[in-house]
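Postdoc handover notes: sequence design on the structure in folder B. Input tokens:
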């Protein structure tokens, strides 16, 4: 009987050690800030689809702002082209202002936003950071064109479809600014392609 009890305790102990080690292994990967924010909003507004859609839009805008700020800083430090550096500074300034507006709007609506670069944003940053010289500048211009085209589409959709009037108005008011960024990026790319 004692042997059976001892064997049972040994098996139980081994099982607990395995469970403990498994849980430690799973804790090393940090969750993506965007997913954390989306999950928090989903929980808060699970029964209110209209709020959940608007919160997703603001989460996307926060993600875009965070990425543009970091990429703008990178352009200022890594590029040797004066126009790229100038564009990078403008990105940091404009998207810092936008981030502040999005944050205030989200706070008023009780939405949770990501506060650090998302996995996708970090991946884009890393791809750009691998480049140097003219390759860096051209990749930067391409990223700015692609990113601003996508961002404008999201703003246009929210300006039309957002449920909350303040969210719709904010989206509508920011289309012109991002369109100007897009045109600037296209001019930058044309000039860089001549090199």
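Designed sequence:
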């Amino acid at each position: 009987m004692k042997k059976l009890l001892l064997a049972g305790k040994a098996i139980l102990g081994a099982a607990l050690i395995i469970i403990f080690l498994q849980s430690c292994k799973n804790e090393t990967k940090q969750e993506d800030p965007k997913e954390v924010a989306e999950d928090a909003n989903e929980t808060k507004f699970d029964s209110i689809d209209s709020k959940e859609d608007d919160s997703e839009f603001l989460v996307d805008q926060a993600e875009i702002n965070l990425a543009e700020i970091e990429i703008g800083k990178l352009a200022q430090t890594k590029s040797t082209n004066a126009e790229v550096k100038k564009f990078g500074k403008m990105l940091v300034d404009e998207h810092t202002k936008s981030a502040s507006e999005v944050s205030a709007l989200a706070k008023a609506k009780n939405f949770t936003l990501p506060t650090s670069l998302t996995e996708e944003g970090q991946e884009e940053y890393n791809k750009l950071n691998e480049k140097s010289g003219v390759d860096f500048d051209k990749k930067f211009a391409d990223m700015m064109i692609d990113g601003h085209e996508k961002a404008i589409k999201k703003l246009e959709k929210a300006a039309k479809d957002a449920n909350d009037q303040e969210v719709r108005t904010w989206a509508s008011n920011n289309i012109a600014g991002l369109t100007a960024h897009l045109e600037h990026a296209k001019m930058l790319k044309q000039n860089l392609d001549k090199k």
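Context for whoever picks this up: Confidence is low (pLDDT under 50) at residues 12-16, 24-28. Don't rerun without checking with the PI first.
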